[in-house]
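Hi, here's the filled form for the chain we discussed.

Project: internal
Contact: R.S.
Residues: 378
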Amino acid sequence: MRILFLAPLKPPDHPVPSGERTVARLFLKLLGRLGYTVQLASRLRTLTASPSSLAWDRLREMAGREIERILAEQADDEPVACVFTYHVYYKAPDLIGPALAEALGVPYVIAEASRAPKRAEGPYADGHRLSEAAIDRADLVLTPTRHDRAMLEALRPPHQRLVDLRPFLDLDEWPLAGVSRSAAASDEIRLITVAMMREGDKFASYRQLADVLERVKDRPWRLTIVGDGPARGEVEAFFAAISDRVRFLGAVSDRPALSRLLADSDLFIWPGVNEAFGAVYLEAQAHGLPCLAASYGGIPDVIRDTKTGRLAPPGDSAALAACLIELIDDPARRAGMGVAAAQFVANERNLAPAMTAVRRAFIDVGISLPASPPGVPL
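And the returned structure, exactly as it came back:
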């Protein structure tokens, strides 16, 4: 059985790393582990820097040609189980999946869909309309956060099934996940953050992070920043007043090397301005790191406040600084949160429970299943 896979915001083989690419690749792996042959049906990106009617018209024309190409390439000897699209929202509507599923007579599945009625007017009105049409057509929507679920439930068409599928990772990709972490060589708390450096929400998060750390200069800490991008110069300037305590490593694409950096740290901190949920928080917790963030969007679905980390109100640097002081000053609590964080990911957010949830959801909506591979729980 085949699944035709789409990722209109960023295809999983895109050369630029990001959380979006990471999650798309995780879904490819999950579906493959369930026994499907997964085909990346198109690399067309619908994200547009200038959301004009003319731009959307061009994208629809391109999508139409892609649909014709995909249908012409379908082989009769390997049936298609469904069309599966990762991440649909007003900035990146799915212009291919609904028509493709209709033409093939198979179910249409979306993992991570966001409805935003406030975008019905304004520069993204066309994108909103197109994304709403795709979401309305979906037979199954896998929802990663309570934040998105509320609006999806309120506007759910009668035929559609919503299934919670919280963010997950594959612990096998992280060599040092779950390994006992090394003790700090000094009394300084080893902070770490991992994020791209670009304009927009990432830029705002770095600005807030610098503000938070300047508020706690009297505490013993050092910060390692893993990340790079076009805004690196501006980001480094945010930390000028505390530059002697901040180390910029640039991008680290090697997974074992990043695993080592996480395992050698004590605390992960990233405000997460407007993050959908932030896969990086799960990656940090898998290495026994408590996480500090603000409670934007779906972040409360990946960090359990007071259990595996601390959450502050969005935009409140003083509150986030207070949470940081709390954990710097209480090593025993910090260590306990680290143990709980690693257990949380291993027991609830690993690939195996996600596979079980998706398989059950597919059964519920009548998606054809391949023979179960060994080790896949029913």
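Let me know if anything looks off before we file it.
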